[in-house]
Design goal:
Elements lengths: L4 E5 L16 H12 L4 E3 L28 H6 L5 H6 L11 H18 L4 H9 L1 H16 L10 H4 L3 H10 L1 H27 L3 E6 L8 H5 L14 E5 L9 E6 L3 H6 L3 H13 L2 E4 L7 E6 L9 E4 L3 H10 L5 E3 L7 H10 L3 E4 L22 E4 L8 H7 L2 H10 L8 H11 L4 E5 H4 L31 H11 L4
Parallel strand pairs: 1-2, 1-12, 2-3, 3-6, 6-9, 10-11, 11-12
Antiparallel strand pairs: 4-5, 4-7, 7-8
């Protein structure tokens, strides 16, 4: 990030479409063109893996696979694999403002199965299977087995499957050949469409920032296929799980439940799984954001089965040992480190040693009058990415509405300069004016939306990840305003 620039945070699922969820189709292409007109250089998305528990993109069934829900159905219609009548008659949910995941998952699966049945293997499909075999074979079998077992997590499957007995797996591959082919077909289509989408963005001068959750879902092909890399007991249940300790935001901490890495085991093979993961992500995205970066330095380990995150302890992560390997194995990968929360000096040192930019969030800048508050825009270092909020925050409008009087007064005083339509635009201008090399604004804040547009409330289930942008939302002079700010503050 040698050049000052700006971008927008919005997941693909939030795009308008007639099919209940945003996809890599024409609306994505329109949005890329809109970003260009608004003077933006980046489009940040959430993780694009196949969503599992709670529909969260941060709990995917694989760290390498793509999400079939993002597949553009219009392209499949154009190719004659499904009919437009099939799509028009399908139930994608009644509310166009949200993603109805229950209906979407069922309907999409039916349509994609029809497309798979009509698909004839081609050279591209064969090549894809060969090139991606190191993760695709395990993933496709894993998903086929989840269907066989009615969606149950892998750690309750029959022992011979759970423990990956070779003969049992061979038998399953034969019995589940059609379902395995379906899963491979979905991945082939996803990555073919992603390549086109990525090229479209780049042709508009837009780089894609992808998101990598530091941990993987316990119910994932990653853990099932590589149990030796995680802290698991003799029955393949987690010994300890991930989370964060009690803090200002939670008296009991956050219990995420992800299995912890066995860093000693990973070190023995030179962190090959992580190298492969970063390489794959670097193929998809132009820049990577790593969530919960601090855990590479020190991570909170909670005994499995405990009801809260209170009973845990800090453990030492791999630190620069891992990143030295990544930097030696992968050239020219740009990484953003999510360094929010309770950060030790050792985490700050690791961030400095890597050279990665950290994050700053405008909402966190007004809750006290500490002159050293890292989240006040005038305190931002050049080597950072600033946000008005993240996918885990309230929208800026909601945050201000719910803030206490002292916080509101400080925010109004800080953001008062200039004649602007609303506090949101003043906040965006403050982010653009800051020393931060890159300013990223959630689309909800650009549109001045309230609580209904919040993307996620951490540690809650239900109603998250569902917001969708209205089809006419990009009309008006919003693009002109953003471009003007980008020009004023040398971010074009």
């Amino acid at each position: 990030m040698n050049k000052r620039s700006c971008g927008i945070l919005m997941h693909l699922t939030s795009l308008p479409s007639p099919y209940g969820i945003g996809t890599m189709g024409v609306e994505a292409e329109k949005f890329a063109a809109w970003l260009k007109s608004a003077g933006q250089s980046y489009w940040q998305v959430l993780p694009t893996g196949p969503t599992g528990y709670g529909d969260s993109p941060y709990q995917p069934f694989s760290s390498f696979a793509g999400n079939p829900l993002l597949i553009d159905l219009d392209e499949l219609c154009d190719q004659g694999l499904i009919s437009r009548t099939d799509c028009e008659n399908a139930d994608f949910g009644a509310d166009p403002d949200i993603v109805d995941y229950d209906k979407i998952n069922k309907t999409r699966r039916e349509l994609l199965h029809k497309a798979c049945a009509a698909f004839t293997d081609d050279v591209g499909y064969t090549s894809f299977n060969l090139y991606q075999a190191d993760w695709l074979e395990d993933y496709a079998l894993f998903m086929a087995l989840k269907t066989k077992y009615g969606g149950k997590p892998w750690n309750v499957w029959d022992d011979e499957i759970k423990f990956r007995d070779p003969e049992a797996l061979k038998k399953c591959r034969e019995e589940l050949a059609d379902e395995i082919r379906y899963e491979k077909f979905c991945q082939y289509i996803f990555f073919r469409q992603w390549t086109r989408f990525h090229q479209t963005c780049n042709s508009n001068g837009i780089k894609i920032i992808g998101d990598i959750p530091i941990y993987v879902s316990p119910d994932s092909s990653d853990v099932w296929a590589n149990p030796q890399l995680f802290e698991l007991d003799e029955r393949l249940n987690p010994r300890r799980v991930a989370g964060v300790p009690p803090d200002y935001f939670s008296k009991t901490g956050q219990l995420w439940g992800n299995p912890l890495y066995d860093w000693a085991a990973m070190k023995k093979d030179n962190y090959s799984w992580w190298v492969k993961r970063i390489k794959k992500a670097a193929e998809l995205y132009d820049m990577l954001r790593i969530d919960h970066f601090r855990a590479f330095d020190t991570y909170w380990a909670i005994p499995f089965g405990h009801p809260t995150a209170e009973t845990g302890k800090w453990e030492q992560g791999p630190g620069m040992d891992l990143f030295n390997v990544i930097k030696s194995e992968i050239k020219n990968v740009d990484i953003i480190a999510e360094d929010l929360g309770d950060i030790f000096d050792s985490v700050k040192k690791l961030l400095s040693d890597t050279g990665f930019p950290g994050m700053r969030v405008l909402q966190f800048g007004f809750n006290d009058k500490n002159e050293d508050n890292d989240h006040l825009p005038h305190n931002y270092p050049k080597n950072c990415v600033c946000y008005t909020g993240t996918h885990d925050n309230a929208t800026f409008r909601q945050w201000f509405a719910e803030a206490d009087l002292s916080t509101k007064n400080m925010a109004k005083r800080y953001l008062e300069k200039g004649l602007f339509a609303n506090l949101n635009m003043r906040a965006i201008r403050a982010a653009y004016a800051s020393p931060a090399a890159l300013a990223i604004i959630p689309m909800q804040d650009v549109l001045n939306l309230g609580a209904k547009a919040r993307m996620n409330v951490p540690s809650t289930l239900g109603g998250n990840w569902a917001w969708r942008m209205k089809p006419n939302a990009l009309k008006g002079k919003t693009a002109e305003k953003l471009r003007d700010y980008a020009e004023i503050y040398l971010r074009l």
